[in-house]
Amino acid sequence: YRIYGLDRIEDLEMTTDTFKLPKNFSASDYFSNYYGIISDHNIKPEQIVIRAYRDHISYMKSLPLHHSQKLLEDSGEYADFELFLAPTFDFIMRLLSAGAMIEVISPAFCVRMCDFSEILGRFDTKSGFLCAFASKFLPDG
């Protein structure tokens, strides 16, 4: 399947080409192991444990990151949440956007992907881009 960002379309040309969606296709099932619409069947779903601190605890309880999210422990100072999903680029970017309010506990490659010292060490100051960042951390990478 192909996924198109409709907000990115700049020009459109009508054709006579057609596409028939398979009768048994379910978008809910297709995206069930993903955070958003980025799907990559080379990235397998993982048990991911995230620790939220103080004010972010109630935020994560009221607005789960994924339908698989479960509360493991709430000590008041922090709460651990478990999710089962494929750690795609959009999910990692969402975790990074929370900054110091969360910490990735496991798996180890996700911990490294969300470690700011690792990220800054991979930043190319000349181009302003992260150099092959994610591939360094994937289990088979």
Helix/strand layout:
Elements: H1 27-30, E1 46-53, H2 55-62, E2 70-74, E3 78-85, H3 89-97, E4 102-106, H4 108-113, H5 116-121, E5 123-124, E6 129-130, H6 133-137
Antiparallel strand pairs: 1-3, 1-4, 2-3, 5-6
Keywords:
4-stranded antiparallel beta sheet, 27% helix, alpha+beta, 141 residues, elongated
Characterise the protein shown here.
Helix content is 27%, strand content 21%. The chain is built from six helices and six strands; from the N terminus they run H-E-H-E-E-H-E-H-H-E-E-H. It has helices at 27-30, 55-62, 89-97, 108-113, 116-121, 133-137; strands at residues 46-53, 70-74, 78-85, 102-106, 123-124, 129-130. The model has no long low-confidence stretch (mean pLDDT 83).
Number of continuous helical runs: 6
What order do the strands of the largest sheet run in, or round the barrel if closed? 2-3-1-4
Distance between the termini: 25 Å
Low-confidence stretches: none
The portion of residues forming beta strands comes to: 15-25%
Q: What oligomeric assembly is this protein in?
A: single chain
What string gives the helices and strands in order? HEHEEHEHHEEH
Would you kindly provide a brief summary of this structure?
The chain has helices at 27-30, 55-62, 89-97, 108-113, 116-121, 133-137, and strands at 46-53, 70-74, 78-85, 102-106, 123-124, 129-130. It has 141 residues and is α+β, with helices and mostly antiparallel strands.
